[in-house]
């Protein structure tokens, strides 16, 4: 019998390990990548590309190499523990070469539509329509792995900032920020205290006249380094700590971590104390923010109430003259090529274990890496790919649709509680 054909959408971190896992299981993968290179999120480009996340030149990963590498291809010993985006790309290229993955990738090829074949209920097959150099082509695949990620479309909620239309300065989304040079000597407000917002505020504080960091809810700030200078995730994310978390009440774990985090710097004194507990939402990771705040180079402000022609008025009534605004307001995701079968509502999609649509007649469609963990995505994507490929081959089965829907509802309720 011929090997099952699998379409993989996207050649980023998840797409690369999807290729590797398909080959391990004797499947025949074809990866469609709309750009001209691998790497996805981690490939720096001076000019953002449509449909792909775009990073700034200085980005360093927030997870250590020990925790982010693929299980069968360790990162070289001479690479730093926390890698610059250029070193991450170097690692991905080594991985792709070692396992001979590039020959399975069709670069410069966009996926236009993924639809069920007429006999899907019996075969589970999909028709995938792609476009390259203006020409469309259709092909039949036995399964599809969607590896395009969730950092695709910039979320820019301009309507929630009254007066922005009359603001005489300039504004941009963090996706379009590349380096601090053009902000030299300017008064800048950065909106959002996620990883990108804090990173950009810290970097700008070395060039701008003044940086204001606007936050609606505050955030917990973790550091890359733990006790003794070891990587934080290497120290605290282990089987032992996971067992401990399962035995102790969540409130006890939160109390301990918040106390330890505030011992580094008191979040209330720095105007960053959030209402939520430390493990209830994704924390921010940055080593330099407290130093930039205590030296006055970054001033933390509440949410922006409105803009005038030349200033921002904050919810505490203060007003600051502003030359530029960087909106680090995150991303939204969509799958227009799958809109017949998968609906994204308020940036959420109902998937069993964040992977499988629960209502398909055959389990031949899976999403890889569509999750935001406290830690690295690469090992999770690898495990997801291993599971998905075994499901595709019929070596394992999914639960009944009713059980999957119940699990999705339960997971959603748990997340809502937080």
TrEMBL record:
<keyword id="KW-1133">Transmembrane helix</keyword>
<keyword id="KW-0492">Microsome</keyword>
<dbReference type="GO" id="GO:0004499">
    <property type="term" value="F:N,N-dimethylaniline monooxygenase activity"/>
</dbReference>
<dbReference type="GO" id="GO:0005789">
    <property type="term" value="C:endoplasmic reticulum membrane"/>
</dbReference>
<dbReference type="GO" id="GO:0050660">
    <property type="term" value="F:flavin adenine dinucleotide binding"/>
</dbReference>
<dbReference type="InterPro" id="IPR002257">
    <property type="entry name" value="Flavin_mOase_5"/>
</dbReference>
<keyword id="KW-0285">Flavoprotein</keyword>
<dbReference type="InterPro" id="IPR020946">
    <property type="entry name" value="Flavin_mOase-like"/>
</dbReference>
<keyword id="KW-0812">Transmembrane</keyword>
<dbReference type="Pfam" id="PF00743">
    <property type="entry name" value="FMO-like"/>
</dbReference>
<dbReference type="InterPro" id="IPR000960">
    <property type="entry name" value="Flavin_mOase"/>
</dbReference>
<dbReference type="GO" id="GO:0006629">
    <property type="term" value="P:lipid metabolic process"/>
</dbReference>
<keyword id="KW-0488">Methylation</keyword>
<dbReference type="InterPro" id="IPR050346">
    <property type="entry name" value="FMO-like"/>
</dbReference>
<dbReference type="GO" id="GO:0016174">
    <property type="term" value="F:NAD(P)H oxidase H2O2-forming activity"/>
</dbReference>
<keyword id="KW-0443">Lipid metabolism</keyword>
<dbReference type="GO" id="GO:0050661">
    <property type="term" value="F:NADP binding"/>
</dbReference>
<dbReference type="GO" id="GO:0034899">
    <property type="term" value="F:trimethylamine monooxygenase activity"/>
</dbReference>
<keyword id="KW-0472">Membrane</keyword>
<keyword id="KW-0521">NADP</keyword>
<comment type="function">
    <text>Broad spectrum monooxygenase that catalyzes the oxygenation of a wide variety of nitrogen- and sulfur-containing compounds including xenobiotics. Catalyzes the S-oxygenation of hypotaurine to produce taurine, an organic osmolyte involved in cell volume regulation as well as a variety of cytoprotective and developmental processes.</text>
</comment>
<keyword id="KW-0560">Oxidoreductase</keyword>
<keyword id="KW-0503">Monooxygenase</keyword>
<keyword id="KW-0597">Phosphoprotein</keyword>
<protein>
    <recommendedName>
        <fullName>Flavin-containing monooxygenase</fullName>
        <ecNumber>1.-.-.-</ecNumber>
    </recommendedName>
</protein>
<comment type="function">
    <text>Acts as a Baeyer-Villiger monooxygenase on a broad range of substrates. Catalyzes the insertion of an oxygen atom into a carbon-carbon bond adjacent to a carbonyl, which converts ketones to esters. Active on diverse carbonyl compounds, whereas soft nucleophiles are mostly non- or poorly reactive. In contrast with other forms of FMO it is non- or poorly active on 'classical' substrates such as drugs, pesticides, and dietary components containing soft nucleophilic heteroatoms. Able to oxidize drug molecules bearing a carbonyl group on an aliphatic chain, such as nabumetone and pentoxifylline.</text>
</comment>
<keyword id="KW-0256">Endoplasmic reticulum</keyword>
<dbReference type="InterPro" id="IPR036188">
    <property type="entry name" value="FAD/NAD-bd_sf"/>
</dbReference>
<keyword id="KW-0274">FAD</keyword>
<comment type="similarity">
    <text>Belongs to the FMO family.</text>
</comment>
């Amino acid at each position: 019998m011929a090997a099952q054909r699998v379409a993989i959408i996207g050649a980023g971190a998840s797409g690369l390990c999807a290729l590797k896992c398909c080959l391990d299981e004797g499947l025949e993968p074809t990866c469609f990548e709309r750009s001209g290179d691998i790497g996805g999120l981690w490939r720096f480009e001076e000019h953002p590309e449509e449909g792909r996340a775009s990073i700034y030149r200085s980005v360093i990963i927030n997870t250590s190499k020990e925790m982010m590498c693929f299980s069968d291809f360790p990162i070289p010993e001479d690479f730093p523990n926390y890698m610059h985006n250029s070193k991450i790309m170097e690692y991905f290229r080594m991985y792709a070469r070692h396992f001979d993955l590039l020959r399975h990738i069709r670069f410069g090829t966009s996926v236009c539509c993924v639809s069920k074949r007429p006999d899907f209920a019996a075969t589970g097959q999909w028709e995938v329509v792609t476009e390259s150099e203006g020409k469309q082509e259709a092909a039949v695949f036995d399964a599809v792995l969607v590896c395009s990620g969730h950092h695709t479309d910039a979320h820019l909620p301009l309507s929630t900032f009254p007066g922005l239309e009359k603001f005489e300065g300039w504004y941009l989304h963090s996706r379009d920020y590349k380096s601090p040079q053009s902000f030299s000597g300017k008064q800048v407000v950065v909106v959002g205290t996620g990883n990108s917002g804090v990173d950009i505020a810290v970097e700008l504080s070395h060039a701008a006249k003044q940086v204001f960091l606007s936050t609606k809810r505050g955030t917990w700030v973790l550091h890359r380094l733990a006790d003794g200078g070891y990587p934080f995730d290497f120290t605290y994310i282990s089987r032992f700590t996971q067992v401990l978390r399962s035995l102790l009440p969540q409130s006890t774990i939160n109390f301990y971590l918040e106390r330890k985090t505030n011992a580094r710097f008191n979040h209330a004194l720095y105007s960053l104390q959030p209402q939520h507990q430390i493990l209830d939402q994704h924390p921010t990771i940055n080593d330099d923010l407290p130093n930039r705040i205590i030296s006055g180079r970054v001033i933390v402000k509440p949410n922006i109430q409105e803009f005038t022609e030349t200033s921002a008025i904050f919810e505490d009534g203060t007003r600051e003259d502003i030359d530029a605004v960087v909106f680090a307001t995150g991303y939204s995701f969509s799958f227009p090529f799958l809109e017949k079968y998968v609906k994204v509502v308020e940036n959420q999609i109902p998937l069993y274990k964040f992977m499988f649509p629960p209502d398909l007649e055959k389990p031949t469609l899976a999403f890889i890496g569509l999750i935001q963990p406290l830690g690295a995505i690469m090992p999770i994507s690898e495990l997801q790919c291993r599971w998905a490929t075994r499901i595709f081959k019929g070596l394992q089965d999914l639960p009944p649709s009713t059980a999957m829907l119940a699990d999705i509802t339960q997971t959603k309720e748990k997340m809502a509680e937080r």
